[in-house]
Amino acid sequence: MAPSQLPDLFDPVFTLQDxxxxxxxxxxxxxxxxxxAPQEITALIGPSGCGKSTVLRCLNRMNDLILDARVxxxxxxxxxxxxxxxxxxxxxxxxxxxxxQKPNPFPKSVFDNIAYGPRINGQRRGLDEIVExxxxxxxxxxEVKDKLKQNALALSGGQQQRLxxxxxxxxxxxxxxxxxxxxxxxxxxxxxxxxxxQVLSRDYTIVIVTHNMQQAAxxxxxxxxxxxxxxxxxxxxxxxxxxxSTARIFSNPADKRTEGYITGRFG
Length: 267
Known about the structure:
GO terms for molecular function: ATP binding; ATP hydrolysis activity; phosphate transmembrane transporter activity. The protein has about 270 residues and is an alpha/beta fold.
């Protein structure tokens, strides 16, 4: 079995087949094959510049927003080609939400941050219930229930990040993508986000990019290790080295490059 493959033990949410990503003529990521399981946390790890975030952004077509970016190969969401001509990228991003590295609440009230997505989708009734439910699910309700009219930018960094998770949940997505969601947070706030991820994975498929190997080991069921290879012209290309259960990646990796990164010998 190739290290980038997994046996057919589940119906995947995403299937990546020979995925490559280009920025102009530069191939940033080359030949990724992987299958992402439902209602689990999948972690993407590896050194800087290896394409983790680039691959993550392919899963909800965020790379469409980058000038000269293009995708080769195939990304299937359940049975549908995510890059098919009839697919609406706006609907893709509704179903596949994203939480970014730096908390990015809108300069609006806590309530209006959560209600923003439902309103954009035409929802006018039941917003109070939607906001409360999303804040409960993001483990934030008790901390902000008396601050709903206050500016969200007044919240702490950890609260802002959980607010962004609540905002993503409010439109009832199927998948939540997280790009280094704890890198700007202190250890206490990080623990709260990690605990929240594990609770949310009962209902959502979560894919997280992290530089923190301990975090990947703590929260994820499966881990993909990426590295950057340098070709004969001196250009770096992100490559998937190994994808397996997190327990196996961290205890008995199949590839020496994975072992070298996990043990700190390189990267």
